[in-house]
Amino acid sequence: MTTSPETSEPTRRADVTEDAGHPTLSDALRHWARTQGDRCAVTFVDYRVRDAGMATSMTWRTLDARVDAVAAWCQRRAVRGDRVAVLVDQSLDYVVAFLGALRAGLVAVPLFEPTPLPGHDERLAAVLTDCAPSLVLTARRHGDAIERFLTRRGLSGPRIVAVDVVPLVSGHDYDPVPLRPDDIAYLQYTSGSTRAPAGVMITHANVVANARQGMASYGCEQALTTSVSWLPLFHDMGLVLGLVSPVHGGFPATLMDPLAFLARPRRWLERLAATRGPVVTAAPNFAYGYTASRTTEAERAALRLDHVVALGDGSEPVLPSTLDTFYEAFADCGLHPRMHRHTYGLAEAVVLVSVSSAGSPPARVSLDRTALAAGRAEVVAPGVGSALTLVSAGQAVGQEIRIVDPKTATTVPSGHVGEIWVSGPNVGVGYWGREEDTRHVFAAQLRDAEGGIVEPWPERPGWLRTGDLGVLVDGDLYITGRQKDLIIVDGHNHYPQDLEYTVEQAHPAVRRHAVAAFSVPGDEGEQVVVVAERARQLAAGDLDVADVAAVVRASVSQRHGLALRDVVLIGPGGLPRTSSGKIQRSACRIRYVERSF
């Protein structure tokens, strides 16, 4: 360890070659420890120590040895197949804990340490109750707090193991576990934006397949590419970008703490600039706008980012205006829209389903909003009053996508909106302890317009219902919304993210990317409510709330022909969000109905 400062079938990308040499992450780690043992495997940059960051690294050999030690320790305290919760802050210890659980033949559950952040401890307690772990892997610095948390929540069953004090000599007692590709590797709990968190059962074969798909689509090369990520390792995108793909592909990863990014977003770009190319990274869409708005011209002038080959964007709707703002701000640094890779995915498929093409900016299409609300994609000229511009999420990578009428479970023609269904080797095997939900979501049967059966990926029980709405235009996938969030008023469909964008543009007092639109029952049917956070630079006493509400109502009425029932303005940070930062519209609806905002 070192320290230093016509059908709904899109065009599919070429199949990704199987990598039989590394059927599990544990096998891959062992291989890289043997073949490039003294090279850097993973680096964590700690900004709590100093503003410029303190970098600590592990070689492949050291990482493999520490993983052996943790695996041996776990073997003596748990039975194969037991769940093991990983409750560590973003650090090298997290990487060791996760891989150690896998190597021991246990089922890892990537989570987070108890934190004062709103809602996190409640979610953590719910997940621990659901998965009933035998062990909790953490670090010594969290041990006392976790013990108090478990006791307070009535969860005193699991044994706590601090991975940073497990002696390397313990690895001498490790008894190799023959891991099978269809064994469950970990439970990836969904973010819970529309329902209670559920643990997706991800097998070793699933995670290796998605790592392979991601590496191929992002052009990652062994020992050459470096991934840089501030995304939390307990989140699906952060886990795959910051740990899974680098370990499988044998290239180094650099990790940061999410809070270090939120405090000073320039650190993300500074770390990219300081990392030898080629470099890949990814973030939710809000991060690109946030970074552009929170960096100065002088800070940008010091950055050279020509060697970045991919800037992934996923986890939430991608706004064209955000991309334009970001790449205009950092054009002189060497960033270009052709580096941007809009990705669609979900935890049920590990993380990655489709991605826009390399070497050119993600395609855009302007659609008539009225036709789109009726379920049809009618292309119009950009900028006309009825136009809604969407950014392409590209094409499926090593798997299949269909657009489906969810009521009839039949494919719809290209250019028609429907639910996105997926099938591929990366799709998980179901939800932990939820057999009925597993059958409904992971084993759906699909038919074409003529009634013929559409076969899923080989050896898959059926198709995955994603719950997301999309449309295919010229072979590219465009995400239009989430089925459960769709607002239907007087028989007309309205996408909440469309309304939210209109609201945030309506008045400067509305904070960007901090608006929730949802429907509630009324005397004459569904009615729409908007809850928005006020801009941080404005004090509550400085606002004429009635004026802001009137402007918002007028903008929504003019653009969408929709009368709002209510406009609620709240303080910054008041909207409930998931662990990945997405606004929880369902939770907003509950709070509104309960009058708890």
From TrEMBL:
It holds the Pfam family AMP-dom_DIP2-like. Keywords: Fatty acid metabolism, Ligase, Lipid metabolism. Residues 9-20 have a biased composition (Basic and acidic residues). GO terms for molecular function: adenylyltransferase activity; ligase activity. GO terms for biological process: Actinobacterium-type cell wall biogenesis; fatty acid biosynthetic process. Residues 1-20 are annotated as: Disordered. The keyword DNA damage does not apply. Gene3D superfamilies: 3.30.300.30, N-terminal domain of ligase-like (3.40.50.12780). The keyword Lipid metabolism applies. Residues 485-595 form the AMP-binding enzyme C-terminal domain. Residues 30-432 form the AMP-dependent synthetase/ligase domain. InterPro entries: AMP-bd_C, AMP-bd_C_sf, AMP-dep_synth/lig_dom, ANL_N_sf, FAAL/FAAC. Belongs to the ATP-dependent AMP-binding enzyme family. PANTHER family: DISCO-INTERACTING PROTEIN 2 (PTHR22754:SF32), DISCO-INTERACTING PROTEIN 2 DIP2 -RELATED (PTHR22754). This is Acyl-CoA synthetase (AMP-forming)/AMP-acid ligase II. The lineage of its organism: Bacteria, Bacillati, Actinomycetota, Actinomycetes, Pseudonocardiales.
